[in-house]
Amino acid sequence: MNPPPVAAAPRLLVVDDEPDLRTLYELALLREGYDIETAACVEEAWALLQAARFDAVITDMRLPDGNGLELLRRLEQAGRPEKTLVITAYGSAENAVLALKAGAFDYLTKPVDLRQFRSVVASALGRVPTPPRAAVTAVAAAVPAPPVAALQRLSGGSAVMGQVRELVTKVARGMAPVLVHGESGTGKELVARAVHQVSHRAAQPFVAVNCGAIPEPLLEAEFFGYRKGAFTGASEDREGFFQAASGGTLFLDELGELPLAMQSKLLRAIQERAVRPVGATAEQVLDVRIISATHRDLEAEVRAGRFRQDLYYRLNVLPVRVPPLRERLDALPLLCETVLARIAAESGLAAVPRLTPAALARLARHDFPGNVRELENLLHRVVALSGGGRVDVD
After folding, report:
1. Using an 8 Å Cβ cutoff, are 271 and 314 in contact?
2. Which residues pair with residue 84 across a beta bridge?
3. How far is residue 178's CA from residue 164's CA, in Å, rounded to a whole number?
4. CB 69 within 8 A of CB 49
5. Nearest CA to 191 among 158, 221, 162, 164?
6. What is the dihedral of CA 53, 57, 63, 69, to 10 degrees?
């Protein structure tokens, strides 16, 4: 019996004009079993890319004959499949955001932490580490829905939600933070889950956190975990939301409810890609993608001094707007049918109640200030009060 073929090592292209840094990156990656090529400028890198395919391109932002963004644009225009990682100067958040919007999978800041460097490269190549057993138990993650099913559920037959679905497919490809905004009850968590389920992180945990439901004194411990004896009542080590989401996605719902002090700590965790549990002396480097959601106008909150501008820029790299139900009433018949089927199944009904055309027309004249959540509550009442399979206007 012939042995199975050995998979070829992933090929990486490292672009930096500083020889010492190229050597440092090359050595760090060679130890991980990658096949490495290096270049000192945009044109040299492009020549190598014309001659061969790579799995990923790691480029400095500043190069002698241009910058990393130019290389990203060429790759995008040529339809190249390589994942791209950009290295920016420390503190240059604007460049990092530009790189992510130009299609970079992720970015690193100088001086590069080699642990983070190896972790980000592994993530770009789909080598996401399995989360700790405790994290999986804490999350009780369900088997992820198939990507196609997740996207179909998101669309619901609506043309405007079809546009949201296309955007979800695009933003799911990278590591950049996503900010989902829309009115209460529009289904922002459904969008966040869809991003996770169609990404390469689908098999890893999806941890949803309602930022407005946690008492302020407990925020740091809940987010970052704590060590035994860190405070009264800390009788054992406990992991936080970040550790539970390791390798997967952390969904921060109602982000605008976080107090300023916690916003500062969250910003540092995102910048450093590491957290320090309460009572610990060392930080833990983590591979977590952040998706946030809010019904607040965060730009107005920034102007009012209630939300940190730097955190807003970090999280609003890839904005996704979820339209209110009144803007997608074309989906109302299918949406009602889906919700009624679920209610019937939960209630043990023999048949799914059906809305008459007149009843649907009446619903379509309502502006639904509570959006999909209001519609679901209304249909629950309809099922409870109708007493039959056919539901008319009265």
Report:
1. yes
2. 57
3. 13
4. no
5. 164
6. 100
- Tokens matching residue 278: 């309460």
Q: What is the pLDDT of residues 39-85, one digit of tens each?
A: 999 999 999 999 999 999 999 998 999 888 999 999 988 989 899 99
Residues 216, 258: Cα–Cα separation, whole Å? 8
Confidence (pTM): 0.73
Q: Beta partners for 52?
A: none
The one-letter amino acid code at 258 reads: L
Residues in CB range of 138: below 8 A, 6 or more apart = 239, 244
> Quick one: tokens of 148?
């196609």
CB–CB of 39/59 below 8 Å? no
Let me know the angle formed at the C-alpha of 76 by 194 and 7, rounded to the nearest 5 degrees.
Answer: 75
Contacts of 41 (CB under 8 A, 6+ apart): 15, 17, 63, 64, 65, 66
Q: Indicate the pairing of strand 354-355 with strand 56-60.
A: unpaired
d(CA 85, CA 62) in angstroms, rounded, equals 13
User: Is the bond preceding 111 in cis, omega lying within 30 degrees of 0?
Assistant: yes
Q: How do residues 292-334 score in pLDDT, each as one tens digit? A: 999 999 999 999 999 999 999 889 988 999 999 999 888 888 8
Q: What SS3 class is residue 314?
A: helix
Question: Greatest CA separation found in the chain?
Answer: 77
Cα angle value 328/330/336 (rounded, 5°): 95
